[in-house]
Amino acid sequence: MTATPYEEKMLQELREWQQQMVKEPSLMSHFTRGVQQKINSIIPEKVHQAITASIKQMIRAVLFGAKYTTSKPYSHATMELKETQVLDRIDFYKKTAAAEGGITGAGGILLGLADFPLLLGIKLKMLFDIAALYGHSVEDYRERVYLLHIFQLAFSGQQQRRHVYGQMVDWETQKLHLPQDIHQFDWRTFQQEYRDYIDLAKMAQLIPVIGAPVGAVANYHLLKKLGTTAMNAYRMRWKELSALNRLPPASDEVL
């Protein structure tokens, strides 16, 4: 099966994205990670445990609830049509997150703190919608684990990003070895990487006066990054499934 012009362009974007996923961490990345690890080592273990448990329960609640409000998989369509729909949903959620960040940012510290669970819910709901538009059913527990991997890929340092990316390559094989209990997911690393990634962007949201515009801009760009990551993650799945069905999407090799 010959790739369409759109699919050729899509695969070129995928190649460029994959190169970004596997590149070595920069010196600045190593320095930043060292500082973050030092800060995390100072925080009492009980605090880490409490935050991990809180994020775990928050995400489990969204993962369990959102699947019942997500559209059925959008299977019978070209990739071009699917991605047109995906881009529309990403745009909707970017604007939603920006509005939410502006409102909570304008409300001071208390509302600023409320932004964390609200934004997390918006991000996960967007991932559910994107999965369905690419034709993947989130009724399958393994698809929901894939969503968590996408989340990690978007909001982790480069070293952890390379590790997570390695777990997502050849997902049709990898998913066969997943534990059946989501409690076995590495929630501690998940929450630390997420917090470290967004802390600098979000802390300014708690400052009076500038909180509203900072919250709106930060949320908009966080959703944009997550959307781009999700699109390329599902493009990678599409390519792998095409290969399994003996329908290579293009002659060029992708990492």
Report the end-to-end length measured between terminal Cα atoms: 20 Å
Percentage of residues assigned to helices = over 70%
Order of helices and strands: HHHHHHHHHH
Question: How many alpha or pi helices?
Answer: 10
Q: Which structural class do the helices and strands define?
A: mainly alpha
Structure overview:
The chain has 255 residues and is an all-alpha fold. It has one domain. The protein is 75% helix and 0% strand. It is built from ten helices and no strands. The protein has helices spanning 5-22, 27-42, 45-66, 79-106, 108-133, 141-154, 158-168, 171-174, 187-203, 211-244. Helix 3 crosses helix 9, helix 4 runs antiparallel to helix 10 (211-244) and helix 5 (108-133) packs parallel to helix 10 (211-244). The protein is globular and about 55 Å long. The two termini are 20 Å apart.
Quickly describe the structure.
The protein has helices spanning 5-22, 27-42, 45-66, 79-106, 108-133, 141-154, 158-168, 171-174, 187-203, 211-244. The chain has 255 residues and is mostly helical.
Tell me the layout of helices and strands.
Blueprint: H1 5-22, H2 27-42, H3 45-66, H4 79-106, H5 108-133, H6 141-154, H7 158-168, H8 171-174, H9 187-203, H10 211-244
Helix pairs in contact: 1-10, 3-5, 3-9, 4-5, 4-10, 5-6, 5-10, 6-7, 6-10
Descriptive keywords:
about 260 residues; mainly alpha
